[in-house]
Structures are given as structure tokens and as C-alpha cells.
Amino acid sequence: MKLRPGAAGAGTLLCRAADAWADKAGGTSGALWGVALTAIGTAIGDNQTPDAARIASGVRQAQEGIQHFGRAQVGDKTMVDVLVPFSDSLNAAVARGASLTEAWHEAVRVANQAAQTTAQLLPKMGRARPLVEKSLGTPDAGAISLAMIVNTVADLLKDHATAEQGA
Q1: Which residues have CB under 8 Å from 141's CB, separation 6+?
Q2: Is 55 helix (H, G, I), strand (E, B) or coil?
Q3: How many beta carbons lie within 10 A of that of residue 46, not counting itself?
Q4: 38 — phi, psi (to 5°)?
């Protein structure tokens, strides 16, 4: 992938998206997504094709940034309940030598299960916290949203891999 002179690369694009998301979405979720996209964009950078190691590192940095900023932990019934196992799985698969597409798909399976498991948790943080027992049996919206996003990326990676094989 060659960049045109003066063109923004993937890292800059993600950092600009982070700023826009944080500015427009408002609230805690906007700020958290801003933290995540900035971390991934910074890890990927602009000068090289994003590879599995840089992307996995960016996801780990996003996880750490979100946990630091939002102070949520696994079990609090938030997006962190998906982000941590997704990040752990992605990084472990990449460390074993899996391709980005393989590692991402493996991590997606973990994310999907983790999102559904939030239905059994009582909220300790976030917008669902005031509902406490009323939320039992319903998955966390942030966890489901994150699972949907990583599933969409998985589909795009699969499409890209298929297109490359056909070329």
C-alpha cells in the first residue's frame, strides 16, 4: 500500500475519526471510543501497511486506555466485558503466528460469547447501573455494540482476503 504525498494514512484517519466521534457522540461512550480509536491509530501509524502485530497492539492499548479512563473492569457489565477477552484472544493468536484475519475471527468468537454472557451480570458502572436487577437477563448494550463492530471488521477482513486470493 503506497501513500500519496500529503495523504493521511490509516493512523491519521483513525485519530481524526476518534476526535470526531468524541466530539459528536458526547457522553462517556464518545470519550471512550475516542480513546480506543486514538490508541489503535497511534499503534498503526501512517507509514507502513497495518499488520497483525501493530493492530493487536493497538487493540491492547485501546483496552488499557478505556479501562484507565472509564475505570471499568471485567464483570461490571460494560463494553470492557467484551473488549478484554477480545483483546486477549487477538493478541494470543497473533503471538502464535496467526494471520490478522485468522486471529480476528478467533477473537470475534470470544467477543460474541462474552457479549451474551453480560446478560447474567449485574451492572456496576455505566448507564445500566440504576436498573440493577431489572437488567438481569439482558446483555449490556455497549458489549453488544462492540461485538457488532468487531464482527463487521471480521466480515471486511474476510472479504479483503477473498479478493486478494482472487487477484
Answers
A1: 127, 128
A2: helix
A3: 16
A4: -65, -45
